[in-house]
Every structure is written in C-alpha cells, then in structure tokens.
Amino acid sequence: MFGFEQLTRDLAQAWRTGGTTPLPEAGKGPTTRLEAYAIQDRMAELIGEPVVGWKVGATAPAIQLCEGHDGPIPGRIFADRCFESPARVPADLLNNVKMECEFAFRTTQAIPAGSIRLGTGEIAESLTFHPAFELAASRYAPGTGNRSATTFDGIADNGSGGAAIIGPPVERWRDLSFETMEIETFIDGSPAVQIFTGAYRRDPVAIVVETFSDLRARGIAIAAGSYVLTGSLSVPTTVRKGQTVTAKFAGMSPLTFTMT
User: Fold this and answer.
1) By C-alpha distance, which of 215, 211, 205 is closest to 112?
2) pLDDT tens by residue, 215-230
C-alpha cells in the first residue's frame, strides 16, 4: 500500500493495548504532512472504532513557534475514548498520559468534503460549546530511535491524542470571552495547574472553522454531532492512576475525571 504499513500497524496495536512502539529511526518515519496524514488515516482504519470528533494541538502560532511545529496537529477522537464528565477513565488505555484543559465545540450539521474553505458565519450557528479535557498520550516508547520526535511523528500517531472528557453544553456561549476566561484546574490536592493566557490562546471558533476546512480538503466529511477540541489551555500535566482532576471554567459547573 505505502511505505509505512508496519509502523502504522505497530501504532494501531499500541493504541489498542495502551502500550508503546519504538520511534522510527532517522529516515524511517514520515517526513511530510502528506505522509503523516496517510499513516494516521490508515491507523484509524486499523483501530476500526467510530470517529466522534477531532482534537487539534498547537493551534496558536506562539505554541507552534515555541515547540517547533509548522502548523496545527490534528487527530481523531474515537467513540470508545470519549467520556462525559464526571468520568472514570481506565489508566491502562493510555501510556504516559497528560491532561490539558480545552474549549470544545460540537456541530449539529453534517459537512461534506470539498475544497472550498468555510466561513465563520456558516459554521458558528451550528455549534454548541462544551468545556473539556484532552488526555494526550504518545505511542512511542521513551528513549527509542536515534533522533527526537517531529511534528510529523506526532501527526502520524493520531496527533498524540488519547482520550477526551466532555462537559455539558453551555447556553448563551456567544456571550463568553474565551480570550480572557478564567480557569482553575487541580489534580487532587496539588497546586493549581498553570493556565495559558494571551498569545497562547486563539479564537476557538476560528480554530473549528480552520479544522473543518482542512479536513474537507483532505477528502474527509464531518458527521453531525462531531466534536472539535481546539487546543490546550493549560500546561500539559501528567496524571496517574488513582488521581482525580477537576477544572472550574468561570461560571460553569466543575468538570472532573478520575484515572482508574
């Protein structure tokens, strides 16, 4: 099929088992977005679970510059890894998992594939807003390979996505100030997790529109009811079995999950 079938099978197997696979050595991994997307798409075929949405990392230019990415890092949210708050998430599903607070949106309309980029107005009216967590995870075993992981490795590995915890929809979300919204997040009784502000945030609706447009250009249709997690609002923080995470988005009911 293409030159990365074994890598793709190894990534899919690691996804299913909560295990790891070695990072490909130099010259053996994807070196373009096209190759990385092909691996991710094939990985999704092998996983075989329904896709209920998308997560997008590195959505702010400041984060892309800081972390050395050439653009956003998308990945799929699979039905069996999408939970409603309050949630209990099996720890053995994920390896070296890190928690991130996110703004999530869900579209009420189906959007077909196509090359014409979408406008904000035609999408915003069909969106519902949800506070959310992303649980990011890598299938690559630490210390393997003879190089550092790249943006393309992350995209190939389902965008380094692991799971999503979704809160209830928020009414009148268009009145919210996403750029300045205060968020408090705690893991058990530890000090508060650091929250991103300023240049590390972007208009999340614009991110949804860009994500849908990019997916359509790749020939991927968006089903009605699909979620989009629009990028981390907090420093990615390791969470372990037995720990409980709680986030308080200003004016909303607490969002919480426990790793079991």
Assistant:
1) 215
2) 999 999 999 999 999 9
